[in-house]
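Notebook p. 47: complex prediction with 1,3-dihydroxyacetonephosphate.
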Amino acid sequence: MLNFFDLRNENLIEKIQKLKLEKNAVILAHFYQRPEIQKVADFIGDSLELAKKARETNADIIVMCGVYFMAETAKIINPEKKVLIPYYKAGCLMADTAIKEEIIEYKKKKPDTFIVTYVNSSADVKAVSDICCTSANAVKIVKKLYEQGIKKFLFVPDRNLGSYVKEKLGNDIEMELWDGYCYVHDQVSKEDVIFYRERFPKCVVVVHPECRKEVRDLADFVGSTSQIVKFVKQTSAKIVVVGTEEGIINYLKKIAPEKTFYSLYRRFICDSMKFITLSRLYKCLLEEKYEITLDENLIKEARKPIEKMLELS
Ligand code: 13P
Ligand code: SF4
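Predicted complex, structure tokens below:
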């Protein structure tokens, strides 16, 4: 039987579906979104998949249920479309650690260094970067650039993903790391992995590369959210310990109901992702706010590193 909250949610979901059709809108949602948002979304994916979907869509309105940089990315690659985010304060704290002026200053000092910027960054920062990457393609992209003869890199802003890329490509890579990190993933320690290994010796531990090296080193699998989804689909393990934001567990339970999932950390929650609620999504579609607006020139400049990423990935 449905409880009060389920009933209220069902009612909102119905209204959202109706508005979506009336306005020819598409709802894109990240894996970290609340279960009820995942339920109403047309597509659920990681940062790279969301960017690709945003580029392919025929909808007039794109509603991005994720954090601000994801909506900005959708706008940059779809300037002619209306892009909305249900709550304008849903920012990514890691993205905030990279500042455009500081990167310009760095480039003045080291003009021969190639700036590789994680999509978890503002449009301003993207505009002064040479290429973007996501956690799904970072290793592949830097490898391709290295093979093309680029030898010096700065990785912005996640020091953990940057160190993972360096590790994967070997010590020949000359890569400096920006001192940014994700407060959600960086709080996990190796003791958390050891705790689960002792409790469930047959479990598999999957973690996001935004986790620290000491955590990645003890994991069975390291990958972006979509890569974690793929791994879970094919593993025979019955118990999976998930080292990324717990919203993804709702999705994993749907695709692998026979498995048991545990969150690697007691509060593995990105508060910004959770700012997106059904009532905010409904209001967003009804009033067509909050709309992402960016200066034309900024769109032009920020688009270049994103397009370069999409070409190489
Ligand atoms: P993914 O691209 O792997 O979905 O990661 C996005 C993110 O913000 C992780 O914290
Ligand atoms: Fe940003 Fe971390 Fe939230 Fe991902 S989990 S959106 S990196 S703050």
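Notes: The chain has three domains: 4-92+273-297, 95-181+301-312, 188-264. The chain has a mean pLDDT of 96.
Next step: compare against the earlier run before touching the bench.
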